[in-house]
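Quick question about two entries, pasted in order.
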Amino acid sequence: MRVSIYIIFLVLVHLLYSCDFINRTQPKHPNILLLYMDDLRPELNTYGASQIVSPNIDKLAKNGMQFNNAYCNVPVCGASRASMLTGMLPTKSRFLNYNTFVEKETPEAVTLPQLFKQNGYTTISNGKIYHHLDDRETDWDEVWRPYAFDRNDQGLAPTDYWQSLWKDYQNEDNIIEYKNTDTGPAYEKAMVNDSVYIDGLMTEKVIRDIKKLKKSSKPFFLTAGFIAPHLPFNAPKKYWDLYDRNGIKQPDNNYVPKNAPAISISTWGEMRAYSNIPKKGQVSDSLAINLIHGYYATVSYVDALIGKILNELREEGLDKNTIVVLVSDHGYNLQEHTQWAKFTNYNTSTQVPLIISSPFHQKGKSTNALVELVDIYPTLAELCNLEFPEHQIDGESMIPILNNEKHSGKKHVLIKKGNAFTLKTPRFSYTEYLNPKDNTLITSMLYDHKTDAQENINVVNEPDYKDDVIRLKKILHTTCQNNIIGE
């Protein structure tokens, strides 16, 4: 009898301390820490990119759930952020480009930070959350970006002043060039400490906020909006030194996909605006390696900064009642299909890392469930027991997936860039380029991710895929019809 009781006791202890144990003592309104990345594709060690040094993000994934099939809804920063923070999908006339203003395009929307503020949360916007500093300012108790609110001798408003300095070069020649031309090289390796670049300054601010919020009786919605790894790829030299340049490789699919329509291939105007990038044609192999090296360095730099934030959260004991979300606004091209930057409907532009680490849910789990960024709004609202405007929200809560990593997720998600509408399913990526005047078909693409994960062959006209095209086209023009016509 005593042996049986002892065995039962051991089993209960094991369950209590198991990494899969779900804490049933969740407070009604837990805290939220949003780590919002810019241009970060799933180029992380935890996602299988073994060449990347990202120990802190990897650790975060081990303490939460990693989503392997998460997609943005618009592969453009401003529009993607507007979509995610409103929970609303893009349409023909909504959330079009980087210069999207939520308060102009969806003035009646209850945004995610607004919802939390209305429910008694302290809301703080640090760094780049909305694309524009002065968009939806009343959503926050505080809006902060490095230098933006400093006095300046040009008499510029904070938004305009920020636009004049955010590239944040530290090497003297680059500083002079930036000041004189409003541009500079696409990357920089500087002998500076972590705290010197804008992301480092922002990290120090977030750490101060954590110390301050520890003393508050109110729950918080705290954000850290990083610039890196957005262009220019600027990082302290020690993060460049983590990578052997001779070991960095260009992608093996640096060519236009077979049968791909010309309209699908970006000319990467964003990168061409930098002074060491040719205005026409492809970059040299040497420059390509430098660019990829710079991207890797900025990823490792921001990973180190995230580690400092998460360490502070633990030291203050706030990790026990704070849900941490790491997500990017969209993916990025590193010469795949001859392309750089984002702005395309290819998987490299649209797939994002998403990690949700909740002390009240399973840890160390990875899921292949298909999800999209508009799902974040209802998920966080439900996790924090907040009623949200269901009529506004296009996303679905991911809590069933948090409770069961084998959940299949969605049957499809919608991605839009310009006049291109993509229906992404667990197996396929089907894209139609439509005439903006009458929505007639210009051309289309179909990639079978089961046999062609890199999207190297457009099979839309292959006889074997005829039925798939018919089925996906029907879904796109029924389920997503309002998005296509612009309502």
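Here is the second entry:
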Amino acid sequence: MSPAREPVRAPAAVPGNAPTTVPGPPRDAGSHLSLLSLLRAVWLPSVLVALLVLSAAASLDAAFRAPVTGWMVPAAWPALAGLAVAAVARSLGARMLRPLAAGLLAAGWVWCRQWWPETMMAGLAPQPATAEAILESSEELRVTVWTEIIPVASTDALLAGLGAVLALTALVTDAIATGLRSPALAGLPALALIGGAAAITTGLTPQPALALAAAAWLALLAAVPVSGPGTDTGTGGANPGPQGLPRRRAGWTAGWGAVATAVIGLGVLTTAQTGLPLLTTGVAPEGQRLALGQGSGPVNPAADLSQQLRSGSGYTGITYRTTDGQGHYLRTAVVDDVMAAPWDASPPRYAGDPTTTGFHPAAAQLAEDPESPTDGREPDGQLVSLTLEGWAGHWAPVPDQAATVEPTVGDWGWQVDPTTSSAYREATTPVDLTFDTMVLPLGLTLEQLSARAGSVAPQDVYNRWGATDELEGSAVQELAEELTDGVDNPVEQAVAFQDHLLSDEFRYSETAPAEQGYDGSGLELTEQFLAAGAGYCIHFASAMVMMAQSVDIPARVVVGYAPVAAIGGEHRVTADRAHAWPELYIDQVGWVPFEPTQTVGRTPSYGRQDPTAGPTPAEDPTAGADATPQPSASEDVQSPTDDAGPGTTGGSGPSGAPGIPPGAVITVAVGLAALALAAAFPAWLRSRRRARRLGTRRPGAPTAPGATPDAVPQWWAELEDTAIDLGVGRAPHESEQVFAARIGAIPAVAEAVEWTRYAPAGTEPPPGLRGGGTLADSVRATIAALEDAAEPAVRRRARWFPRSLVPEPLRR
């Protein structure tokens, strides 16, 4: 038997009644425990906590490209080290704060030693350089979380972050289970981990992991004792308790209510996984695009293109090779209405089979006209060979300015639309396909293109892509008229718009629109972008198209992918190259692409006032070590800056993750408030019940004299419920006198309740009932003494999770 706590004496409120004593809870097991008892009481719960947390962490497997052992083993070391040190501290006699603190220190040291050993003094002591390395890793982790598409690579920053989460989860679970002796509640962190994993990944949580976590939780219920006066906290309950009462088995003192909680919680989670869309498809944008090319394809004009850009460097399933070694723009669809929010793209209106229908880019039209600047010469074509791997989209990626598409695409159901230079199919069957296209670049200078341009577009083009009434009087129109004041040529007007957007007044940023509330498309958001001067391709393309339409130039937005550099001769397209750019219809020429987006893509030669003074050719932003793209005469590569580009915040603007919409903040706030109210409700209900029974919320406060027989059962019920909450409830075989003596209540209290329950009618009441309010004060004093004798953790649990509110059949 462990040494007992100093007995707590109940106040002698009634003269003539000798106070009794109640033994406090025994201290934790120490050196007197046998090795077997030590293993059962200390090390077994730690092992079960580790198994519970790591099994729950396995539900994240779908988020990683590596096998589960590849990411879990390195991430688990801090958690395992922290649990081991906490168990050592607990075996030395501590129970709550000291084991938790020791575990956190050990986990933190292992964490630093594992990921940043070179920054530690002599490889042992963390120093300021370690803190700097942690901050750098945190920034890398933030970028990964906001930009990468799952499954993600197991980077050091990601594994370090996961290791910190698992360590904290494990030590909090251990503190709840072993420190607070609340094994049922200890399952909640693991459930949160499983639920969060199901929400951000597609598919169900691996059932073996769920079953193993459930088994570990139930085993934890059976292995961890619940402490309190009159219970054993050291040996698991093999010896008789104080006052000769038998001890319950350590694990089942939590009661059937704890088991029911575990079973119900797992049942709800399993049902939710199979029935709730947010858990079966994922709530994060990446969760719905785990298999790239699903639905309408990776670049879906009906979706928010900003999420495509933030989805990171995941492979899209597109590779291509070119005869000139340069990367090419790939188009998938054309936006119906630039004013719409979100954008949409309709199936082709005039679709034909690729065998008989070809595209007609601007260069091809010029080649057919002997008066064109090309003198009727056939333009030099460039062969682009594309390979699609598992592509399941409606829209096929087609190189921009393509003149012909190999009929192979028609064998898979695609039809080409010459009005939008796109290819569409109804089916979404995954396709593995290689096909060739011939691209005819528009090799003109600004002067040549301006000289060729007409002034009136065909009516059918203008009806579909011309100005709308919404632009009339808008800030976009005012800016367009200001920029083109005195300029009548449509090509020169287009270049004026492009130059303005490429000027120092604007910068590329994917975070600023979200942070400032203009993330998306539409006239109003575009006006906000023009005022703020920061955005990404959606905003730059929308602004140029709207400005062009406002001066009667038909214009449209094309969505697809920006050029990528070759690695080993092959261009591999990643999700962060998702892009949108404007096309303007120039009479006598056709649809001409421009590039107004800062630091992305290439500015064509006809889009610069002075081709010889253009930007220095540079590699594409995604160029590899052996990538050596060589710009053609018609196009130079725009140099990307170090602080701007897809996935980063350009210029000197604010950095950080995309801003949280106000609606999401309100939702989270309401949810947290609801959780707080739900957590506080048991404590509120219990305090109301005590106030109703005792006439005051504070035990020991004076009340009016005059105890009545009707009040005695209420006082006794409160005394019993308090004992239940503190873990020393009345046993079924205990009489009122025995129970009162065990908890330190004065005999007069038991005599009063026995008189009200069993005395024949007409029997004179005991002295306590004739003594006025002193008996009520004794009840309150006994309650106060019981609570003072309990350990702080027991008192907290009794306050916030009172077991007396649970129906009696579930408590036993």
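Reply: Residues 510 and 759 are 81 Å apart (CA to CA). Residues 662-694 form the longest helix (33 residues). Hope that helps.
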